[in-house]
Amino acid sequence: MNRLPSLCDDDLLDRLNEAGPYHVGEAAAVMERWGLDAIVIAQPVNVFHTLGHWPQIARTRMGQPAGTFAILTARQPDRPVLVTSRFLHFYTYADGRGPRDAFLYDDLADTGDLGRNGDFPLCPDKGAAPLSTMEQHRFATSAKALQTRAAWRNAGGALVGALQELGVWGDDLHATRIGWDDPLLAGVLARHGFTGESLAADNALREIRLIKSPLEQDLMARAAQANVDALSAVGHAVRAGASYRELHALFRAEAAARGNTAVFLNVDRSSSEASPHRIADGQALFLDAVSHFQNYHGDFARTVFVGEPTRAAARAAEAAAFAWQSVREALKPGVTFADITAIGQQALHKGGYDVMIGFGPHSCGLAHTDEPGEDAGGFWRKPNIALREGMIISVDCPVLDSGIGGSAHCEDLVLITADGCRQIHSTHEPVIVV
User: Fold this and answer.
1) What confidence tens digit (pLDDT) does each residue in 182-225 have?
2) Which end of the chain has less Cβ packing within 10 Å, N or C?
3) Looking at domain 24-209, which of 3.40.50.1370, 1.10.10.10, 3.90.1150.10, 3.40.350.10 is its CATH number?
4) 121-137 exposure pattern, b = at least 16 Cβ within 10 A, e = fewer
5) What share of the chain is helix, strand, coil (3-state, %, to 5)?
């Protein structure tokens, strides 16, 4: 096993506090390609990508309309602004962060009103004891924001006020083009008489996410290594008689012990945590694990032999590893997802393997599959994406055959470089034998 240097969590968190992890150059290029003057952002994953802050309200009120927003402009793609409530800015956003250009409001609503509120106190200082360092920081950050501009009465007013101040609202002589990632924002634009072009731009944000900034590459490597170590611990703990449920529980614990949050574990083709099945002696099974660190996902799969596998299962595991190695050697800028599938199938044919494997390339980042999609009647179809330097991808290589004595899979995360690719986590043998 070849290990990579460890990354300090405190350093990564400090860098997230300084700026959002997104790739500024790619953001500028995508906005130019789409012809956008600005993108107004409401979805939590996109707010985090832009600002390095996952809105707290998105965790406590899942599925409800957003209350924290970001705005990216083509004019200054390196200076996103924050739009949020004065309370959330004081009580959650300010913690650990320095001042950022912020447009604050008091009421989560849009009444068509652009009026401002006075600076009534939030969490007033009673003076009974000195303010803690955290309290001092909150008051200072809030005061800085309100010294620049007073808070709006409601969220709609703050969003419109921000777009106007940023110079992207436009007028009768100069129409602008504003993208958004949530229909809620289209409604705000319409209610306030926006006369430019308003369009859905979630795919534009996904295009930006394809290319990882240096900070994102480090966050991905940190997440990936912990995920690999957690799955390896589970794999070596597998024993005949163990239940799939026990393996799920163990993975959650092993991921947490390494600072990751478990997302899912596929055990022998089953992702259900309620699966009642148990491991049998002589079984081959794959473990496919996904967990995240600061919302960046690791994705890793290996085959486990519990005792002596059947000849068919051993051959399948060999085929998955051989095909992935062949694919990995061919990965470089310009290769498309369709090319990857073809390369994998050709490798199986050349190697003489009579095994069915589903080669599934996907960009990985703020989700297991983090990439734009093609519209298919309101649904999304997977596009034939061409690899570019700075992408981080995985290629799923699960064996799809049944009746062979189990299952097999082999998968790693790689960064696409100028002339090839490199693995972002430690290297491991394709099979774990227990």
Assistant:
1) 999 999 999 999 999 999 999 999 999 999 999 999 999 999 99
2) N
3) 3.40.350.10
4) eeeeeeeeeeeeeeeeb
5) 35, 20, 40
